[in-house]
Amino acid sequence: MSQIASTILMVRPASFGFNAETAQNNVFQKNIKASQKEIQQKAVEEFDKFVATLRKKGIEVIVFEDTAKPVKPDALFPNNWFCTLEDGTLAVFPMYAPNRRIEKRNDLLQMLVDKYNVRDVEDWSEYEAESLFLEGTGSMIIDQQYKVIYACISPRTNKSVLEKFAHAHGYKAMLFYSKDENGTDVYHTNVIMHLGETYAVICMESITNETERIAVSQLLISTGHEVIPISLKQVHAFAGNMLQVKNTKGEKFTILSKSAYNSLTKEQKNILQHHTTLLPVDITTIETIGGGSTRCMMAEIFLEKK
């Protein structure tokens, strides 16, 4: 079992912009004064540089082109609507915002089925009809190695759907509540937590219930992770939204945004660098307007190639 993937899939945006439907519970999104054309142009520039940085390090990236119609402002965050598991599962998830449900693309799923050994395609989308949501690896931090799913309950992460998903795959669900400085539920677990192979970056101060905080901490430690706490201020700089991947030689890299990297203390960087090589990328426009960072832009492919 490998916790980190050597192939990631990214969707190149065709109409990136501020999404008012998701802004209802994503406090990280900011609507800035710029034309749609300027925003889209900047997003594509950042996206292409991001991909080039990864490929230069020998990390395999599949780039899928977004379609211009229908307009999908968040298409470059594919990790919310599908994920892959090492057992050959390709899962599709129920999404909170109606305009994000149209991001689900059969041609993308078909490409994965054609290229990889997919044992089962599961579609959990029927829960959208009941207004119950589970947004992929935004909602769930999956420990593939120890079969644990960490998740903070929120309007986008329904407890019962999560427990059903965990049970279906033999995972233990470690559920908790995570709040920002205003007491608002954190919308996605992956903004306050990142799990590497041998370390965990987590905003412990956002877990206000002491019992839950201790339980999460103990489980991380007992599964061999060095816990690196970050502050809520660092969460706002997307320091919780990282992803560890490996290249074709098996070298490990942790991808994070420039703003996340700049928010880390010298000590935090040193600890991280014992475990991994930090690879910062500049995605300021995407991060500011989209309210998601590097982790959200990468869907890991854990499937075996045909």
What this model shows, in words?
The chain has helices at residues 36-56, 98-101, 106-115, 136-139, 159-168, 210-222, 232-236, 258-263, 266-275, 284-290, 294-297, and strands spanning 7-12, 60-65, 82-84, 89-92, 120-123, 141-143, 148-152, 172-176, 193-195, 199-202, 226-229, 243-246, 252-257, 277-281, 299-300. It has eleven helices and 15 strands. The longest helix is centred in the first third of the chain and has 21 residues, at 36-56. It starts with 6 loop residues before the first strand and ends in a 6-residue tail after the last strand. The protein is 31% helix and 21% strand. A three-stranded mixed sheet has the order 2-1-15. A three-stranded mixed sheet has the order 3-4-5, with no helix packed on it. It is an alpha/beta fold.
> In what order do the strands lie side by side in the largest sheet?
2-1-15
* CA gyration radius, whole angstroms: 18 Å
The percent range for strand residues is 15-25%
The largest pleated sheet is described as: 3 strands, mixed
Q: Give the ordered list of helices and strands.
A: EHEEEHHEHEEHEEEHEHEEHHEHHE
Shape: globular
* Helicity, as a percent range: 25-40%
User: Uncertain segments of ≥5 residues (pLDDT<50)?
Assistant: none
- Kindly report the average pLDDT value: 92
Tally of separate helices:
11
The assigned structural class equals: alpha/beta
Give the number of DSSP strands: 15
Distance between the termini: 18 Å
